[in-house]
Write a structure and sequence with these properties.
Blueprint (H helix, E strand, L loop, with lengths): L2 E9 L4 H11 L4 E8 L3 E8 L2 H10 L4 E12 L4 H11 L4 E8 L5 E8 L2 H10 L3 E2 L2 H5 L1
Antiparallel strand pairs: 1-3, 1-4, 2-3, 4-6, 4-7, 5-6
Length: 142
């Protein structure tokens, strides 16, 4: 079950990030998860929000470059080596992980890990077969 994620291009200068977060807040968009990667000139802000389409429309209407991607989410138990085990499952299937980010799960018993891979269906199948629970947008929004 893929999760919709926004990838937002942000200028790497003072006020660039707050412009995006203020814009989303002003449209009543709640942020559930985020990650930012930067270079000297720009950053890529990756967001999971409570209303992907509304957020996309608001950002585009304000001249922000945004793209919607589908990512895989899994729950990782809070035990040593579990992330490595999940990544090994994907590696064994020949699936490259472009990027990932993690945050505490709603129940606090582990973490949710968001993965960008080239083949969501194969990744989800392999991870589920290995005993990992896939998470949905609803799980992330709790």
């Amino acid at each position: 079950m893929a999760i919709k994620q926004l990838s937002v291009f942000v200028e790497n200068k003072r006020g660039g990030l707050v412009r995006i977060t203020d814009l989303l807040a002003g449209h009543g968009i709640n942020l559930s998860a985020l990650s930012i990667a930067d270079t000297k000139d720009f950053g890529i802000l990756r967001l999971i929000v409570d209303d992907t389409e509304k957020a996309r429309e608001a950002l585009e209407a304000n001249g922000v470059l945004v793209k919607v991607n589908e990512v895989v989410g899994i729950e990782i138990p809070d035990r040593t080596g579990e992330l490595s085990r999940a990544l090994s499952v994907l590696d064994d299937e020949g699936i490259n992980v472009e990027y990932l980010y993690a945050f505490l799960s709603a129940g606090g018993t582990g973490a949710y890990v968001v993965l960008r891979v080239e083949d969501n269906a194969t990744a989800e199948s392999a991870l589920t077969s290995a005993g990992f629970r896939t998470v949905t947008e609803r799980d992330v929004r709790k």
